[in-house]
Amino acid sequence: MKSTAIYPGTFDPITYGHIDVIKKSLKIFDRVIVAAAENINKDYLFSIDERVENIKDSLFKDLKLNKNKIFVIPFNTLTINLCKKYKASVIIRGLRVVSDFEYEFQLAGMNKKLDEKIETIFMMSDVENQIISSKFVKEIAKLDGKIDKFLTKSIVKKLKNKLE
């Protein structure tokens, strides 16, 4: 049986930090499902359809990653329900800085309480990408800063177009 992991997030937009986590996950799992969350309580720059398209463009067009090992989907349910649907026993979460840990630790604990069969694995991106956050990238872009060190080529273009 193939091992499957779910990597949920907002990916608004997807950054090199996210991509590092995806690449590292592919070394461990046969299949990684990148799941773009649609949370009605959160304001997004990109719609759910745009975020799914952005993820696909970044991973498959810009970086030419393996389409047979990565699946990109939208979701608006509990992550553990997504795990059951796709027969995934692991949730991947990215950690950048210590301040991420408290929230992620609580989230992992809640998921474990909801389904004890599902594990959460924390991964860190490479050092040069640990400081990247979608929030900061959007802010830099709004102020006409250079963002090509944080995003793939197609996403740089889409973010600039979105902010014009």
Describe this structure in words.
The model has no long low-confidence stretch (mean pLDDT 94). It is globular and about 45 Å long. It has a single domain, classed as 3-Layer(aba) Sandwich (Rossmann fold). The protein contains 6 helices and 5 strands. It has helices at residues 16-26, 48-62, 79-85, 98-114, 134-142, 153-163; strands spanning 4-9, 31-37, 70-75, 90-95, 119-124. A 5-stranded parallel β-sheet has the order 3-2-1-4-5, sandwiched between helices. With 164 residues, the protein is an alpha/beta fold.
Order of helices and strands: EHEHEHEHEHH
Uncertain stretches = none
The best one-word shape is globular
The proportion of residues forming helix, as a percent range, comes to 40-55%
User: What portion of residues belong to β-strands?
Assistant: 15-25%
CATH architecture title? 3-Layer(aba) Sandwich
**CATH H-level superfamily title:** HUPs
Distance between the termini: 47 Å
Integer tally of domains: 1
The CATH topology: Rossmann fold
Supply the key terms.
164 residues; alpha/beta; Rossmann fold; 5-stranded parallel beta sheet; 6 helices; 43% helix; 19% strand; globular
